[in-house]
Design brief:
It is a single chain. The protein has 1 helix and 9 strands, in the order αβββββββββ. Strand 8 and strand 9 form a beta hairpin. It is rod-shaped, with a radius of gyration of 25 Å. The protein is 15% helix and 44% strand. The longest helix is centred in the N-terminal third of the chain and has 23 residues. The chain is an alpha+beta fold. The chain starts with a helix and ends with a strand. It has a 4-stranded antiparallel β-sheet, with no helix packed on it. A 3-stranded antiparallel β-sheet has the order 4-8-9, with no helix packed on it. A two-stranded antiparallel sheet has the order 3-6.
Amino acid sequence: MKKVLLIAFGIILASGLLYIYFFVSQKPEEPKILSQLESKENEKGKREFIFSITNVGKEETTLTFPTWLEYNVSISNLDNKEIESGEIIMKHLDLNEENRNGRLLLLEPNEKFEYRLLITNIPKGKYEIQISSASGYGGVLREEFEIEF
């Protein structure tokens, strides 16, 4: 009788450990986000960029944005010329600047979300734009561009 109880206890213990290993300790899939940057030349002193994020994973993904600005962006002058603060104007065409609380964005598999950024009042020269999603996924993209008059 002791052997039967010992074997039954062993089977229950092994089943419990297997259950915990396969169902409880499984972490959700890490979001797989592909970032892309597309540049559209506009009239002189202006440039439009389209920054997109795509869920390339097999599961839906929720991205968290703590503020209204859902991407990080910077522009560098490659000619080593100093640009005064406020000289270049960035217009975030698809973002609501009044939304101070941020938001959650649910992306289904293969779903793409685009942001348009219009940069105006750019002096003549060579520049580099760096952009990344504020969610922390998708990496940093860089693109060089030139403004000629």
